[in-house]
C-alpha cells in the first residue's frame, strides 16, 4: 500500500495535515495553505477572501442607515452599534468603522456650531467680520 499524499511542510506541532494537496512545479506536495505555485497562491487568496467575507458578522440589510443629523439620532445609532458589538452580532471591525463615522459626524457638527456662533457674533458686533 502506498503512503497517502501529505503536505511537505513541517509545523511546530508536526507534519501539516492540510488538504487540497497538489504536486507543485518543484515536485513538492503542498496543501493549498502552503502552496507556492502562483496559480495556487492566487486560489488560496481568493478562498481566504471569500471565507473572511462570509464569516463577517453584519447587521441586516434593512438596518436603518446612520443618521448624523442630530445628537439624538447619533446617540441612537451608537447605541445600536455598540449593542450589536457587545452581543456579537456585528463584527468588531465594522463596528469600529461605524463608530469612527459617528466621530467624524460629531466633528462636522462641531464645525457647523462654530460657524453659527461666529455668524451670530458678527451680527451682534462682537467680532470683526465682513457682515454687518
Ligand atoms: Zn500544508
Can you give a write-up of this model?
- With 132 residues, this protein is mainly alpha-helical.
- It folds into two domains: 10-55, no CATH class; 71-123.
- It contains three helices and four strands.
- The strands form two sheets. It has a two-stranded antiparallel ribbon with strand order 1-2. It has a two-stranded antiparallel ribbon with strand order 3-4.
- Helix 2 (71-86) packs antiparallel against helix 3.
- It is elongated and about 95 Å long.
- Bound molecules: zinc ion.
Average residue-wise pLDDT: 91
| Total E-strand runs | 4
Instruction: Using the CA coordinates, give the radius of gyration.
Output: 28 Å
Multimerization state: single chain
| Poorly predicted runs of 5 or more residues | none
Helix amount, in percent? 40-55%
The bound ligands are:
zinc ion
How many DSSP helices? 3
The profile of the biggest β sheet is: 2 strands, antiparallel
Q: What distance separates the N and C termini? A: 97 Å
Strand content: 5-15%
SSE order in H/E notation?
EEEEHHH
Blueprint (SSEs and pairs):
Blueprint: E1 10-11, E2 14-15, E3 22-23, E4 29-30, H1 38-55, H2 71-86, H3 92-123
Antiparallel strand pairs: 1-2, 3-4
This protein binds zinc ion (ZN).
Question: What are the salient characteristics of this protein?
Answer:
132 residues; mainly alpha; 2 domains; two-stranded antiparallel ribbon; 4 strands; 50% helix; elongated; binds zinc ion
Brief summary:
This protein has three helices and four strands; from the N terminus they run E-E-E-E-H-H-H.
Amino acid at each position: 500500500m502506498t503512503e497517502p499524499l501529505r503536505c511537505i511542510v513541517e509545523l511546530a506541532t508536526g507534519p501539516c495535515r492540510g488538504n487540497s494537496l497538489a504536486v507543485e512545479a518543484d515536485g513538492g506536495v503542498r496543501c493549498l495553505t502552503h502552496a507556492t505555485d502562483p496559480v495556487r497562491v492566487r486560489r488560496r487568496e481568493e478562498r481566504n477572501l471569500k471565507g473572511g467575507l462570509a464569516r463577517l458578522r453584519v447587521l441586516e440589510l434593512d438596518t436603518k442607515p446612520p443618521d448624523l443629523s442630530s445628537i439624538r439620532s447619533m446617540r441612537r445609532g451608537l447605541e445600536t452599534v455598540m449593542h450589536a458589538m457587545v452581543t456579537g452580532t456585528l463584527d468588531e471591525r465594522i463596528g469600529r468603522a461605524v463608530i469612527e463615522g459617528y466621530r467624524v459626524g460629531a466633528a462636522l457638527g462641531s464645525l457647523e456650531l462654530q460657524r453659527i456662533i461666529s455668524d451670530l457674533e458678527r451680527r451682534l458686533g462682537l467680532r470683526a467680520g465682513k457682515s454687518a
